[in-house]
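Worked example 3 (structure in, sequence out).
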């Protein structure tokens, strides 16, 4: 073997090895196909399919900044006749920032639509005046995070944490911020409810409920709520009735909504409840009859000046001669961002008077306040 043959053989071997290594270097795995988020328009705007599932998801909520001044400027939703039962506690100002996160899901099944809804609230702010007793009530800080909704619904059957159907099925009085100056119901409860659509504009609901706070059921017997509604182009008429299993009392509300024109809508709602077995410190209030005495009435409406500006007003009165008046102007600066300015008036008796047997003779206190709200919905 001569030197030339040796060199050629070595070169051929090196080329073969290099070629094999080069071939190994360019072999790559096939890329996984990308799975893009798809829009789901079955349940309305904002839904999309969760990748790899048939479930549609929507994420939303709002940011809200409130400022209140005066006696009726409490913005925690608690400034009403019940507040006056605790004496004077709204005397300076109130500021609150709230972030509300909502999730919605929907999926079609052989048993109907499977839906869920959750709402969680995070808040930072202060209380109006100092009613904590330790001198810190006016100081701002983080507040308790609250789970306001968390329910599952399949077809017409709903289970979980919700607002009582005694409120949400009939409606929340007017489009004012302080719509509970004369309280008309309670809010949160665990429940099992069933909604049905009878057709021709008729809908109904039946609900078994646990109650709230001191009105939580104290046995295995639930509170029972039922409602029926007829809705047409002209408006709607709705009725709800509730049985309080703790006190064995009955309460109900009837509401009429009228679409007077494209600009003007009006409503009136009346409530009546028994108080034969009530022993709640003499105040006569139950889970479903939070107003004073046997009856109460609420009325008001909304007038839309244009697409951006509306005027809302409400007046309420109860059997104990407590009176509440609220009015505001809501202006939508840009879509999704609204500023509302409201004035509130409340004339009500006080728990401090200890005149439970004849509330109407108790000294009344008149309070006036204002609220400015900035809200961004998304």
């Amino acid at each position: 073997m001569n030197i030339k043959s040796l060199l050629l053989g070595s070169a051929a071997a090196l080329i073969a090895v290099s070629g094999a290594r080069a071939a190994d270097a360019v072999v790559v795995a096939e890329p996984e196909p990308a799975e893009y988020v798809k829009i789901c328009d079955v349940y309305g705007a904002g839904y999309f399919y969760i990748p790899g599932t048939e479930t549609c998801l929507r994420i939303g909520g709002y940011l809200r900044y409130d400022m209140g001044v005066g006696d009726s400027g409490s913005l925690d939703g608690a400034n009403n006749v019940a507040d006056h039962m605790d004496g004077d506690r709204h005397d300076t100002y109130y500021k609150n920032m709230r972030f509300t996160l909502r999730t919605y899901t929907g999926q079609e099944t052989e048993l109907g639509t499977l839906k869920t809804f959750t709402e969680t609230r995070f808040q930072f702010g202060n209380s109006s005046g100092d009613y904590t007793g330790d001198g810190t009530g006016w100081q701002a800080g983080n507040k308790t995070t609250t789970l306001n909704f968390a329910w599952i619904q399949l077809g017409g059957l709903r289970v979980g944490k919700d607002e009582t159907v005694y409120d949400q099925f009939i409606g929340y009085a007017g489009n004012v911020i302080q719509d509970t100056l004369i309280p008309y119901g309670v809010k949160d409860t665990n429940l099992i409810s069933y909604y049905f659509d009878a057709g021709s504009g008729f809908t109904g609901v039946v609900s078994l409920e646990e109650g709230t706070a001191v009105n939580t059921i104290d046995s295995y017997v639930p509170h029972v709520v039922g409602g029926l509604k007829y809705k047409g182009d002209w408006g709607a008429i709705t009725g709800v009735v509730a049985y309080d299993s703790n006190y064995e009392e009955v309460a109900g509300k009837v509401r009429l909504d009228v679409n007077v024109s494209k600009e003007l809508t009006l409503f009136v709602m009346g409530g009546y409840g028994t108080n034969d077995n009530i022993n709640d410190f003499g105040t006569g209030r139950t889970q479903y009859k939070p107003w004073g005495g046997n009856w109460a009435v609420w009325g008001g409406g909304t007038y839309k000046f244009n697409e951006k500006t509306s005027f809302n007003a409400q007046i309420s009165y109860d059997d104990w001669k407590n009176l509440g008046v609220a009015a505001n102007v809501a202006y939508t600066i840009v879509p999704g961002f609204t500023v509302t300015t409201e004035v509130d008036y409340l004339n009500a008796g006080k728990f401090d008077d200890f005149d439970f047997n004849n509330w109407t003779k108790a000294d009344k206190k008149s309070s006036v306040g204002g609220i400015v709200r900035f809200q961004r919905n998304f």
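Notes: Confidence is low (pLDDT under 50) at residues 73-79, 81-90, 351-357. The CA atoms of residues 129 and 135 lie 9 Å apart.
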